[in-house]
Write a structure and sequence with these properties.
272 residues; 17% strand
Amino acid sequence: MGQSLTKVKRFLSNNPICIFCGGVTPSTSQDHIPARSIFIDRKWPEGYVFSACDSCNNSSSDAEYLVSFLTAVGWDILDASEATKQKAKEVFEEFIIRKHSLAKKITSASTNQKRALARQSGFELPRGATHSQIPLAKLPPEFDAALKTFGVKLAKALHYLHSGNQFILPAEADITAFGETNTSWLRGESFQDYELFNTLFPVQNLRRENIVLSQQFSYSYGMTGDFRNSVFICRFGHVFNLALFVVLDSDEFGDSVNRSIDSLSENHSPIP
């Protein structure tokens, strides 16, 4: 038996239940959340591997592909190396072939529009980057559905992880997700500015080997001591943010989360 297969077998033995369908199904596979394809060179954060049944593992594959496309088009502003630029180009070319009808619906902002928004918001380009590289485009509704599927699964994984691998969310758990693209924060309208989010604990040092991954993916979170309520504010490079809310009980923190959901809903629509 190969070393990697032995590791997977040991992992499933130690984590025998799928954490994504309510804790009632035996696990049969490892699920990397966020997906490895979201990261440059597929170098995902260490420790972000979760037990899943085959059905749950496969159910989000198309959504993860769309989200990985979104993050990949922003790679060259995070890493201006020629190798990374080439990888981003290859991802885009593959997307046009694989999702041709969807690709035709994407409208990219002009360089002048990107420059104007950056100037308006005070956004500073990373060294070596140009305004034309800012991944700014109008996305069709199909990406909303992908972000919802991706976000719900991400919330379940992060909730389980930060409960100390103790609390699997029930299948009927109501998870509210808000998404925003870089257009929002370039206009100074980011939901990261809401009061609750300033009290959250930021996760530090997401890395793989010696590579720090926080510019590609980072998040802040809060959770009640009984693991019944949580909130996660997730950032994906210079491309998009997700706000994910889990409320199973109405305690003080749960009430605060509900107020934040109501406040967010005044200016942002939850992803349906």
